[in-house]
Amino acid sequence: MTIFQVLNSTWHFDPWVLAASISLVVAYVYATRGHLSKHAIIFLAGVSIFFFTLSSPLTTLGKTYLFSEIGRAHV
To answer: Are 52 and 13 in contact (CB under 8 A)?
Structure first.
């Protein structure tokens, strides 16, 4: 399997990651009463990075193509 095939076929939306991301955003909006500030934008960027990191092919690439694990596969 090539890296391009991995990138196109390994998007997975784990329900727990999706629920955690949505609940974090809802709780933050509720706590700040919907006031959009610099801190809110930074928080939303962090939650989106959390979501896309755990749902994107980065997780699969890290598990299957991690260079430090190549040496261990032959042991």
So the answer is: no
For residues 6 and 57, the answer to whether their CB atoms sit within 8 Å is yes
Report CA 30 to chain centroid distance, whole Å.
23
At 69 the pLDDT is 53
Q: Which residue has the tokens 């193509």?
A: 65
Q: And the tokens for 47? A: 């939650």
Alpha-helix runs per DSSP H in 1-69: 3-9, 15-32, 38-55, 57-64
Q: Kindly list the averaged pLDDT for each block of 10 residues, start to end, along the chain of length 75.
A: 69 85 94 88 94 81 66 53
- Tokens representing 42 are 């930074």
Which strand (E) or helix (H) includes residue 40?
helix 38-55
